[in-house]
Amino acid sequence: MTVAPEDGLGDLLAQIAGARGLTCDGYKPNCLRRRLAVRMRARGVHTYAAYAAVLRDDAHEYDRLLDALTINVTKFFRNREAWDVLATRFLPDLWERRRGALRCWSAGCATGEEPYTLAIALLEQARRGGTKAGTYTVDATDLDPTVLDRARAGVYRTPALDETSPALVERYFTGRDPWEVGPEVRTLVRFHRHDLLREPPPDAPYDIITCRNVVIYFERANQERLYHAFADALQPGGILMLGKVETLVGDVRERFQLEDIRERIYRRR
After folding, report:
1. Does the active-site annotation cover 35?
2. How confident is the model at residue 72 (pLDDT cuts 50, 70, 90)?
3. Is the CATH number of domain 80-268 3.20.20.80?
4. 266: nearest Cα among 20, 90, 4, 51
5. Which pTM was predicted?
6. Residue among 39, 78, 103, 142 flagged as catalytic
């Protein structure tokens, strides 16, 4: 991303990178400026130089900024139709081929709803097969340590469960507003801090990768690079699940077969 030096943005980004190790050059410029503007308005400043001063004076503002820069809006079984397609069309075949030993990655997991949903889907597949055989795990990664702490806590308010069936809530959650993810689900999910654009996948190869409503905020060159990284990290025949407004770009499309255009589900060739 090219930044005009006179507007102070370049200096601000260098300060953020030096203080927290967060480099923002992978973001689309307009997206980055909009998200910075959210925090600038909240702190009552109108220039990047003034906001840089806020960050120097208040270290906690870095945490608020990181939350604004990363994409943390999610819920359990978000876009329920996509999870139904995964469960009915793809999980049974993967389960049989791998004898239940499925390994999954939720990339950009935010506050944890997505990886816990994936773990529940695996547990439900085991129940349908009448067995708990196999060793299946979900790696859950995000750049923001604050949201990872919230994800590890596994405690959620009722709106996060709006798209979850009452039967699954009863089976896999305890309490009542707040709800707590049950131990059967928790034991399957491993949380890690991870930079999608600069670090290799945590423990490839995988059978399923979910990365929903994250890649759309990156510039095209970084999108292509990340999709190639997903292809490299997937087993042949493995599944990539994107958000509804996301699609593969560039020559990486030759490495995937589009399986469901509506739900943006691809299979690694």
Report:
1. yes
2. low
3. no
4. 90
5. 0.80
6. 142
